[in-house]
Design goal:
The protein is an alpha/beta fold. The protein has five helices and seven strands, in the order E-H-E-E-E-H-E-H-H-E-H-E. Strands 2-3-1-4-5-6-7 form a seven-stranded mixed β-sheet, sandwiched between helices. Helix 5 links the parallel strand 6 and strand 7. Helix 1 crosses helix 5. The longest helix has 15 residues. The chain is globular. The two termini are about 25 Å apart.
Length: about 180
C-alpha cells in the first residue's frame, strides 16, 4: 500500500489520474488536457498498473488530523506539497515531520513531491530547501527520502514518480532530485 498525503488543494487527485493515464500509455505520449477533479472527502483507493500493480490510498487534505490512523500496512508514502505557496509549504512541513516521526512509517520509503512548478510563482528547490530546511529533515529521518519537482497539470516529472513507485521496495538510498526533466 502506498499512501498519498498532502494539504487540501495541492493536486493529489490530479496526480493519481495522471499516473493512471501515464501507466496505461506505457510512459509514452501526450497526457492531453488535465481531467476535472473534485476535492477528496475521505479516502480514494486507486490501482496503478504498469510493470506491477500498485495501490494508492489518497486521503483528503482535511483528514490531516487522522492521517496517522491510516499508516499501518504502508510501505511507501507520497507526500505532496504546493511549491507555489510558501505559507502552505511551511504548514505542510510540520505535517511531514509528524509523519516521519511515526513508528508505523519508520520502514516506509518516502517521495516528497513539490507540485505546481508550472505556475509562475513557484519556488525553486533551493528556495524550498532553505524555507523548510529540507537537508536537515532528510538527515534526521529514519526513512529513505527522495524528492522530485512535478507539475501534475502539465505532466512534468510524472514519469519519475511512476518509476519510483515501480522500483519500491528498494534498497537503502536517499536522493534529492531537483531536475523535473
Amino acid at each position: 500500500m502506498c499512501l498519498l498525503l498532502g494539504a487540501a488543494g495541492v493536486g493529489k487527485t490530479l496526480l493519481v489520474k495522471r499516473l493512471q493515464k501515464l501507466s496505461a500509455r506505457d510512459c509514452k505520449g501526450d497526457l492531453g488536457e488535465p481531467p476535472p477533479t473534485r476535492p477528496t472527502v475521505g479516502t480514494n483507493l486507486t490501482d496503478i498498473v504498469a510493470q506491477r500493480k500498485i495501490t494508492i490510498r489518497e486521503l483528503g487534505g482535511c483528514m490531516g488530523p487522522i492521517w496517522s490512523s491510516y499508516c499501518g500496512n504502508c510501505h511507501s508514502l507520497l507526500f505532496m506539497m504546493d511549491a507555489s505557496n510558501p505559507t502552505q509549504l511551511s504548514a505542510s512541513c510540520v505535517q511531514l515531520l509528524g509523519l516521519l516521526s511515526s513508528e508505523q512509517l519508520a520502514e516506509a520509503s518516502v517521495l516528497i513531491l513539490f507540485n505546481k512548478i508550472d505556475l509562475p510563482c513557484y519556488m525553486t528547490m533551493e528556495e524550498i530547501k532553505s524555507l523548510i530546511r529540507l537537508p536537515d529533515i532528510i538527515a534526521c529521518a529514519k526513512q529513505n527520502i527522495t524528492t522530485v519537482e512535478i507539475s501534475a497539470r502539465e505532466g512534468t516529472g510524472l514519469a519519475k514518480v511512476l518509476q519510483w513507485l515501480q522500483d519500491e521496495p528498494r534498497s537503502s538510498r536517499i536522493s534529492v532530485t531537483g531536475n523535473p526533466g
